[in-house]
Write a structure and sequence with these properties.
Elements: H1 8-19, H2 23-31, E1 41-46, E2 49-55, E3 60-65, H3 72-87, E4 91-96, H4 97-102, H5 104-122
Parallel strand pairs: 3-4
Antiparallel strand pairs: 1-2, 2-3
């Protein structure tokens, strides 16, 4: 299923979010994802949602979750978003800000594993 087009407001909001990244988003981007292969994008509009990081080649979304994600309401929103992204044919990896702060190598390793699994699935 193709990605749902996004409008001008989503594009503007994504630009704002790129300019106001959290410390954990900055760390993951500048210390790992910016140089990763295949290429990742920051704050990418995907339908009505803006993904923290997106790899179009691997159809992989990476989300970093702060404390607001651990409320009942936040968990419901996250489940809805993950379901929507899954319906678009995308996979979602979620990490807490704490994981990025205190277990960065493991976060990077999990992303690499996901990319490697995607590569294996894509080969005939």
């Amino acid at each position: 299923m193709p990605i749902v087009p996004y409008g001008k407001l989503a594009k503007e909001r994504a630009r704002e979010l790129r300019n106001a990244m959290t410390p954990q988003e900055k760390k993951l981007w500048y210390q790992f994802l910016r140089m990763a292969s295949p290429r990742f994008l920051r704050q990418k509009p995907l339908g009505p949602y803006i993904a923290d990081f997106y790899c179009p080649t691997a159809k992989l979304v990476i989300e970093l979750d702060g404390s607001q994600h651990y409320t009942d309401e936040g968990q419901e929103r996250d489940a809805w978003r993950s379901g929507l992204l899954s319906e678009m044919g995308l996979r979602v990896l979620r990490f807490s800000n704490r994981e990025v702060d205190h277990d960065f190598q493991n976060v990077c390793q999990k992303i690499i594993q996901e990319l490697n699994e995607n590569e294996k699935e894509g080969t005939p």
